[in-house]
Design a protein that fits this description.
37% of the residues lie in helices and 16% in strands. The protein is α/β, with parallel strands linked by helices and 742 residues long. The strands form eight sheets. Strands 1, 2, 3, 6, 7, 10, 13, 16, 19 and 20 form a ten-stranded mixed sheet that branches. The chain is globular, with a radius of gyration of 27 Å.
């Protein structure tokens, strides 16, 4: 490949994609100065991955292969997972996105796993765990004659470690916790994230068995088993436990469910171990100490003249499998055990993005039988071609070392290079770079609001929709603003009916079609499919139960749901709030505003914000908090006036009887373009600073046991304040590239 000239550009790289690359991917010096441009990055990655061919053939033409990899990536036909883009050819060299670590039932094993988690998160990876081996809370500990703390107590240790480590990296740590449905602490596990202030670095999923689902259908008890000795130690009613899982998921989106027996039914190397857990988004089942390297084909680039370009898709599939197998070879693993297990099975996970884009280009509605049929055909083609390439690689490079005794070690099967080939992952930030829809999800919105500097807002429009609107003459700035407000075009008569028919969004699609699409792709996917079933806020408990049962009946390996607005502090930039039934009439009460006495006692708190120091004075009368004043360290300006307005409104609220906690709830976590600090000291905005100052005063007065940090709550992006998409139990902001799980 020719060296970069510094003048080259990448056609189709959007301004937003460039911003994401500069913020999260491009190489920097120790002072934070960017040392490469996107062309340099893609060449760095292509050359590093192609160089692995020299391990098998010293005379291999790696320059030509690197050029093919480069064209494929810069044409946005395929992109590897984020760690490969960030770290290939750099000192860290850790290229895997996901890992699973064992958690054994001893203090030594538990804290060994905590240490290993720290090393993985430091390198930019996410981790999955099964806590099912741990004895339940209050169980006997023979070595000390004491009692066990139980899985949830130790989950908090992992959570705190993750919170500490994630402050310094380009990718934040994310975890998956799974507990078997027959563990004695299962009910506590189901409820462990109910208050939304705990375990916020974890996604949680219940590991469900076939025996449990049969017991649910029969409305009978099932056995609870103590993992310490494998003995039955009780029983629970299956339907009541299932209903509790559903109810909790309805309330705040967690826990998800994983069908453990199905994961192990498709375990390619059963002699090597049992699958207990998955990566943080649930699509990659892994053995303990295994990692996987993921990548996704952009199906939107596989349409030519209104038809699927199957020939080019075949070429990209085979080149992508070659790429991902090379990643295993050049990867620098954070632990020796992980390197050994990963090279032993050589699992790769080739998936897709841009599925919704492809359907639009083919004029096929997402929620149609035609789309379901094409999805199944598409994934079968990718899976078949991927495995064909893996078998060809095995002829040159040999089968994966743990091939003997695997599901492929049968007459007529033939050797294969990789134990698994396909996975449908949430594509998060790489789909932003590619300008593609995410994974196999429908569009999140046809248009949305992106906040930029000084709280200005820009309307981001789906490029395919904008092109059609301009070509057909119904484009207008006013219409685009209305679409951004609604998020959908389903009820806008200005948009032609045939366009509305294909530009459907996640909330336009019934939950049944979400599951049918997931199931269609799952039939021909080695691992699992990351997919979120989106519900409107008005969805019922029974709606969620129906989807969980449908996921089980249709062959899915797991399911994640999200009911709009089910988190406490959700802020959306698209869609109007649904009208709720009017409450019954109540006796009208008029608050009485307290008069200000001549003298009040109080305190002033200095809060460091992105606009400079903010001094927050909080005064009290004998009845409690009474008034609040703010002074900006930098005089004048919009920030100063906004803070003064906040102070006046807070003072009026307190004097009229509004509780301080309610004020904190409204202000805490509001984000602006210029946050300050990090970790527990991070201040997201001036409003957030005021809330934290109030918390501090309440804490000093004994009114709050602890200072709760602001939560993402899977609604507003904590970095830019924009709307987030929900995919695979993760939250992703398409406006700035933030990913909760990356």
């Amino acid at each position: 490949m020719k060296p970069a000239t510094g003048k080259e550009t990448i056609p189709g790289l959007s301004k937003n994609a460039r911003t994401v690359l500069e913020k999260r991917y491009l190489k920097r010096d120790k002072d934070g100065n960017i040392l490469e441009n996107p062309v340099d990055m893609f060449r760095r990655v292509a050359e590093t991955i192609a160089a692995a061919d020299k391990s098998y053939d010293k005379k291999a033409d790696t320059a030509s292969l690197a050029a093919e990899f480069y064209r494929m990536m810069t044409g946005f036909e395929f992109l590897p997972n984020s760690p490969t883009l960030m770290n290939a050819g750099r000192e860290l060299g850790q290229l895997s996105a996901c890992f699973v670590l064992p958690v054994g039932d001893s203090m030594e094993e538990i804290f060994e796993s905590v240490k290993n988690t720290a090393l993985i998160h430091k390198s930019g990876g996410g981790t999955g765990f099964s806590f099912s081996r741990l004895r339940p809370a209050n169980d006997v500990v023979m070595s000390t004659k004491g009692i066990s703390s139980g899985p949830i107590s130790f989950m908090r240790v992992f959570d705190i470690a993750t919170e500490t480590i994630k402050q310094g990296g380009t990718r934040r740590g994310a975890n998956m916790a799974i507990l078997r449905i027959d563990h004695p602490d299962i009910m506590d596990f189901i409820m462990c994230k109910a208050d939304q202030h705990q375990l916020n670095n974890f996604n949680i999923s219940v590991g469900i068995t076939e025996a449990f689902m049969k017991a649910v259908d029969e409305d009978r008890d099932y056995d609870i088993i103590n993992p310490r000795d494998g003995e039955v130690c009780g029983a629970l009613n299956a339907r009541k436990v299932f209903n509790r899982v559903v109810k909790q998921a309805w309330e705040n989106g967690e826990p998800g469910i994983i069908f453990l027996d199905r994961l192990n039914r498709d375990n390619p190397t059963p002699l090597i171990g049992e699958i207990e857990s998955t990566n943080p988004c649930g699509e990659q089942p892994l053995l303990p100490y295994e990692s996987c390297n993921l990548g996704s084909i952009n199906l939107g680039k596989m349409v030519k003249n209104g038809k699927v370009d199957w020939d080019r898709l075949r070429e990209v599939v085979r080149l992508s499998v070659h790429f991902l197998d090379n990643v295993i070879e050049v990867n620098s693993y954070p632990l020796a055990q992980i390197g050994e297990m990963t090279r032993g099975n050589r699992k790769i996970g080739l998936g897709v993005m841009g599925w919704a884009d492809m359907l639009i280009m083919l004029d096929i509605p997402y929620s149609s039988d035609e789309a379901i049929t094409l999805g199944e055909k598409m994934m079968k083609f990718i899976n078949d071609e991927g495995h064909a390439c893996s078998r060809e690689l095995a002829k040159v490079r040999g089968a994966f070392p743990n091939f003997k005794g695997s599901i492929f070690d049968r007459p007529g099967k033939g050797e294969t290079r990789n134990a698994t080939v396909t996975t449908i992952a949430p594509t998060g930030t790489i789909s932003i770079i590619a300008g593609a829809s995410s994974g196999v999800e429908p569009l999140f919105a046809v248009s949305f609001v992106r906040q930029v500097m000084d709280n200005n807002k820009l309307i981001e429009i789906n490029p395919i929709f904008e092109e059609i609107a301009r070509k057909r003459g119904f484009y207008s700035d006013e219409l685009m603003e209305r679409i951004a407000e609604h998020g959908t075009v389903a009820d806008l008569p200005e948009v032609p009916e045939d366009v509305r028919r294909v530009f459907v969004t996640a909330h336009d699609i019934t939950p049944e079609y979400h599951i049918r699409m997931q199931s269609a792709f799952q039939r021909y996917t080695d691992n699992a499919v990351s997919k979120t079933v989106n519900f409107p806020n008005s969805a019922t408990f029974q709606d969620v139960e129906k989807v969980y049962r449908l996921a089980y009946e249709s062959g899915c390996k797991g399911v994640t749901i999200y009911r709009d607005g089910s988190r406490d502090m959700q802020v959306l930039s698209t869609g109007k709030k649904e009208e709720k039934p009017a409450p019954p009439p109540v006796e009208e009460k008029h608050p009485v505003k307290r008069d200000r006495p001549k003298a009040l006692r109080g305190a002033t708190y200095q809060m460091q914000t992105g606009c400079g120091p903010l001094y927050v004075t909080i005064n009290e009368d004998r009845n409690g908090l009474f008034e609040l004043f703010t002074t900006m360290g930098k005089a004048g300006g919009c920030a100063s006036s906004q803070c003064e307005a906040i102070g006046r409104m807070v003072s009026l609220a307190w004097r009229s009887g509004v509780q301080a906690r309610q004020v904190v709830k409204q202000l805490l976590g509001i984000s602006c373009h210029c946050p300050s600090g990090f970790g527990d000291s991070k201040v997201l905005s001036c409003a957030d600073a005021v809330a934290k100052a109030i918390q501090a005063r309440m804490h000093e007065n004994g009114g709050m046991a602890e200072l709760h940090k602001p939560l993402l709550e899977k609604g507003a992006c904590p970095e830019c304040g924009g709307a987030v998409e929900h995919e695979g139990g993760c939250a992703v902001c398409r406006a700035c590239g933030y990913s909760e799980c990356a």
